[in-house]
Known about the structure:
Blueprint: H1 17-21, E1 36-40, E2 43-46, E3 51-54, H2 57-60, H3 69-80, H4 90-102, E4 108-112, H5 115-130, E5 134-138, H6 155-158, E6 161-163, H7 169-179, E7 183-188, H8 198-211, E8 214-219, H9 230-235, E9 241-244, E10 255-259, H10 261-264, H11 280-296, H12 298-319, E11 324-330, E12 333-338, H13 341-353, E13 356-357, E14 364-365, H14 372-389
Parallel strand pairs: 3-13, 5-6, 5-7, 7-8, 8-9
Antiparallel strand pairs: 1-2, 2-3, 4-10, 9-10, 11-12, 12-14
Bound molecules: pyridoxal-5'-phosphate.
Amino acid sequence: MSDWRVPGFTSTGSKRPDALFGAALPDEDAGLPTRMERAAGCRVWDTQGREYVDYVMALGAVALGYGHPEVNRAAGRAIAAGVAGPLPPVLEEALADELAMRIPWLEQMRFLKTGAEAVAAAVRLARVATGRERVLGCGYHGWLDWSQGGEGVPAATRALYAELPFNDVEATRRLIRETGDRLAVVVIEPVVVVEPTREWLEVLRQETTRVGAVLVFDEIKTAFRLAIGGAAERYGVRPDLAVLGKAIANGFPLAVVGGRADLMAGVARTWISSTLATESVALAAAQATVEVFAHEDVCGHLHRMGTRLLHGLHRLHHKHADVVTGVGGIAEMCFLHFASENISRDVARGCAARGLLFKRTAYNFVSLAHDEETVDKTLDILEDVLGAIR
Ligand SMILES: Cc1ncc(COP(=O)(O)O)c(C=O)c1O
């Protein structure tokens, strides 16, 4: 047995010391932060009381900054009102209404707790609507069986899933046509390291319609970040179903599966339900988050700060081309490509030692709490760390 009651050190894989710093074990003696005490705005304090400027931002689940006062106030009111009860809360339909007003292709929606659950629900609804089983997917869609390979996943389940290559127009057209009338659904992440091309999005839309399959946009990372309505809003392509999560409740656990009413009607023919899907704290947090997004041009701020960061990363790439081999992502979610795993590890550790949590892989996220000065200081620290590695 390992030294921890939580095997693997933590229940969220991307927060492991290995994932963040390439450290097999948590190592506070080496100055690495391992567990946090608290967070506020874009800052985090670890168990040793050290302060960090953060770009992990709860893996993209926080876009307004940690502990945003309006979100906290709304959550506090929901706590005082009892959290959960025997009847669906008024908040459920009210939030659905507000989301449908701002994201018109969400004609109807259901709430769940995790992104993985919500994407699985979209796939289930597509199978119900089409009476078919095959799935083509592109990107990461959570840990559940339908999209995963490896140990513990039944081969028969895995056999129903195939990968669609991102931005590859020819392969996408071919795979959708080949799967044809066995294809229930195409699920894509609309941004995977680079932006989608217009042509790829159009082929996805046309070819799924042509074979009668459902097109799902997994907007877990992109909704409430690229735009309130995510990539579909930014690039002007309508999916049949969309899945939202992460930033939608600014760190409180909530996900949404929604879209065409005729597809959502499938909930009457299958079973999609969870005891705490209707607890009201996360619903209240999401309602407050929507309000802040609507009134403060949050996406404009994320784009401006992200662009400042991205331009700086490109400058660092040119200046330190021996250690930095490229820049990945877009303004709102970006990272550096490094010449080796060891270099990426040393950079992440060097940054942490200087009070910066900067991911060495996809993605770093800015928030409403990141300002120009913070981004400029971040770039200075990165410059310093890269110079020292050279
Ligand atoms: C695009 C995408 N889909 C689905 C998921 C799974 O969401 P969750 O971890 O909330 O289950 C993630 C999580 O990172 C994601 O980025």
